[in-house]
Amino acid sequence: MTNAPRFGIWAAVHGARAAHHDPDEPDDASWDRNRALVLEAEALGFDAVLVAQHTANPYDDGRDQLEAWTASAALAALTRRIEIIAAIKPGLYHPVVLAKMALQIEHIARGRFALNLVNAWNRAEFERAGLPFPAHDARYAYGAEWIGLVDRLMRGERVTHAGRHFRVEDYQLRPAGTFRTRPTIYLGGESEPARALAAERADVWFINGQPLDDVAALIADVAARPAPAPLRYGLSAFVIARETDAAAQIEHARLLALADRDAALRADTRARTDTASVMFAKTDAAATRHVGTNGGTAAGLVGSYDTVAARIRDFHAAGIDLFMLQFQPFEAEMRRFAEQILPRVR
After folding, report:
1. Per the structure, how many domains does the chain have?
2. Do residues 342 and 45 touch, judged by C-beta distance below 8 A?
């Protein structure tokens, strides 16, 4: 690739990413913390923030959980440069309502908004609210019809549609097209239905953290599929960077030991997870333990400053455009990355 890599952060929507009992990391999902975190990320030179969507904390519903779309609207008004990416689970919003919300945030952000379509894995989030939670592939079929409508509505088209899941008659949304054709569409998920939908509808496909060879194979698979426009690729990763490789491994071991104290939380979360979730299946099958969500340190961004920078360059050469990063303690390690890794890569 010839374009420069982009770097984003995961908002702290449910607190700590690696371990909930870290004395150096506040398990804080508050709006105040996230506002400060994103404003600092923008000042440090990060390009994007991903605000994951959960109605209740997916690990412990007694803990705080930031609401993704209201927070994204506020962040859009407070920031000036950083891309605001809000995750969306189609089963929670009618496409007309969601498309209107997306266009409004796009207008507030003056062309910096994106939505990240995800296939929900937490059954309890839906079932406890009396909402349907179909089987994995059925959710993707629903999502395909859903995003097709949202795409057209965000473009400002006048839409009439009669499908399996939705009926829309003579609907048009405004304002639209003020800053660009429509907000960017990201899509996460690695199952066969997810790959097919990414090629058909997404601008950027998010891949969970995993080794370089696995990422390259995933990109090759999706890149070979017919698509209306060239697809870009993003990678989730948890970063542990230190002066030396040995020091980074010591910190990784510290976080792993702290994460052991979350075993009961992880077991409860796993019991509520869709068994067809590829992300969790890969985590269960991994020979090496990792920290962080969505693959976390499985991407291998653990090592000296030079090691981490070199691995980022390798991923970028394989096709990764956007690195969506996690840290712990988040603020301190985000600053370290900006000071030590960004200059080495850029």
Report:
1. 1
2. yes
Sign of the four-CA dihedral 124, 128, 129, 135: positive
Residue 168 lies in a domain: yes
What is the domain extent for residue 68? 6-345
CATH of the domain at 174: 3.20.20.30
Residue 245 resides in a domain: yes
Residues in the chain: 346
Tokens 């990764």 — which residue?
320
319: left (phi over 0), alpha (psi -120 to 50) or beta: left
Q: pTM for the whole thing?
A: 0.95
Four-residue CA torsion sign, 187, 189, 194, 199: positive
**Chain center to CA of 49:** 9
Place of tokens 């923008």: 42
Per-residue pLDDT of the chain (346 residues; tens, 9 = 90+): 558 999 999 999 999 999 988 999 988 999 999 999 999 999 999 999 999 999 999 888 888 999 999 999 999 999 999 999 999 999 999 999 999 999 999 999 999 999 999 998 899 999 999 999 999 999 999 999 999 999 999 999 999 999 999 999 999 999 999 999 999 999 999 999 999 999 999 999 999 999 999 999 999 999 999 999 999 999 999 999 999 999 999 999 999 999 999 888 777 777 777 777 665 566 666 657 899 999 999 999 999 999 999 999 999 999 999 999 999 999 999 999 999 999 999 8
Is 119 within a domain?
yes
In a domain, 1, yes or no: no
